[in-house]
């Protein structure tokens, strides 16, 4: 039973990460030709394209991808409830699904910011992965840098963002 629960959580969480990356890359206008971008688009297109017929783009936001992320978050808890045999209330599942998507996005943001910070110590020259990480994280870090500029060559914006992510997680209880 624990193995089945673990596998279901992993499959749903990994797919949700890919869908969230698709949304994030579209909003940030990240490089579409980056290999990671191509992977994300190819994995999510079979489910996003049918939804896109009913849900259009609104500015930078792809509503089809947002709805897909929400449905994956809900689906995870519906499947887990069915496996465990616990009856569920749809109102609870809708809220839990939404919190699941938000929690996963905060986890993804945390790790991408941390990976970008660590890679910045070792990066030499142009690297397509580093460029993509920069495109994704810069919208979050730039406003912090305007308030707290680098001090003596040390950029504290990453630290401030990581603290803010953890604070938000505590506030929303995920």
TrEMBL record:
Keyword entries, A-Z: Membrane, Transmembrane, Transmembrane helix
Pfam family, one: CCB3_YggT
TM annotation in the entry: 147-172
InterPro entries reported in the protein's UniProt record: CCB3/YggT
Any single GO CC term annotated in Swiss-Prot or TrEMBL for this entry: membrane
Keyword Zinc appears in the UniProt entry: no
Family: Belongs to the YggT family.
Name the UniProt record assigns to this protein: YggT family protein
Species the sequence originates in: Pseudidiomarina aestuarii
């Amino acid at each position: 039973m624990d193995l089945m629960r673990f596998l279901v959580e992993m499959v749903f969480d990994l797919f949700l990460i890919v869908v969230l990356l698709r949304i994030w890359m579209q909003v940030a206008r990240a490089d579409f030709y980056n290999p990671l971008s191509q992977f994300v688009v190819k994995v999510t297109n079979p489910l996003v394209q049918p939804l896109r017929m009913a849900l259009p783009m609104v500015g930078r936001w792809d509503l089809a991808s947002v709805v897909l992320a929400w449905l994956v978050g809900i689906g995870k808890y519906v499947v887990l409830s069915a496996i465990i045999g616990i009856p569920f209330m749809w109102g609870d599942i809708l809220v839990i699904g939404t919190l699941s998507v938000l929690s996963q996005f905060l986890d993804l943001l945390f790790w991408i910011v941390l990976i970008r910070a660590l890679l910045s110590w070792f990066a030499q020259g142009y690297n397509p992965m580093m460029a993509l990480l920069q495109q994704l994280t810069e919208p979050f870090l730039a406003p912090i840098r305007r308030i707290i500029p680098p001090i003596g060559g040390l950029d504290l914006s990453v630290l401030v963002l990581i603290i803010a992510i953890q604070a938000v997680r505590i506030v929303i209880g995920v």
